[in-house]
Amino acid sequence: MGLTRKSAQSISKRMCFETTERPDSVLRLLREHGFTNSQISKIVEGRPQVLLAQPEKTLLPKFEFLRSIGVSRSGLSIIFNRNPVLLSRSIERYLIPLHEILKSVLVSDEKVVKALKRMGRILCLYCFPKNLSLLRGLGVSQSSISYLVAQSPSLMFQKVGKFAERVNKKMEFYRRLGLSEDEIRSIFRKHPNCMCLSEKKVMATMDFLVCKMGWQPAAVVRIPNVLCYSLERRIKPRCSVVRVLLLKGLIKADVYLSSVLRPSEKLFLERL
């Protein structure tokens, strides 16, 4: 069938084929649509039953549907490699509703395609509206929700209880940092991706900005997207520049956090 020995051995332990005609036709279709051997091996190791699919009847229509919304040939392999279970899902009952759900928030097919390429396993397709309602109940704006869906699409498809638990745990974590309820809600409203950050990452960033640099927690709350910036590659290098300028008396001590961290690298350097 053209698989690696490891893949063939893994599949042979779980499945038995009378002939290789069907598996060969599946593999041929995947290769014709740009899937590499390593991608195919990963897919069939995780979902060996795909080798029993009727390629022209069940696989090809999925490829054609995704191509119709703008997925490129290389994009197909990325999407199914990240989420091989989609190969066994119904177009009418799954792929089309998935597309409609994403488009209802992201608006354009171009953004939907980008989200699909980022998406991992989808646990609960119809949990999305309930999770969406939870965020709206917190006052998260439509633009912020769109950003969250675009950047972390799988998050919104978690089971409702798990999603709510994640939100509540993050809110409790921010309370332990000494933030008020209004400040926490402000963070989630402005940048809901902050609920995806690890506690270690947030604590390290807050410790540096508040304890080392002297900014108030409220300053961070006003622009919470700074919590997503790399501490080592963006925050510390820029703050080192600020420290030097402060020591030389070239800037005032009350420099705004936003003016240091938010500008692009080019704009930051131009302002020095």
UniProtKB/TrEMBL annotation:
Superkingdom as given in the UniProt entry: Eukaryota
Pfam families: mTERF
Protein known as: Uncharacterized protein
Recorded GO MF terms: nucleic acid binding
PANTHER family: CGI-12 PROTEIN-RELATED, PTHR13068:SF185
GO biological process, one term: DNA-templated transcription termination
Record keywords, A-Z: Transcription, Transcription regulation, Transcription termination, Transit peptide
Family in the record: Belongs to the mTERF family.
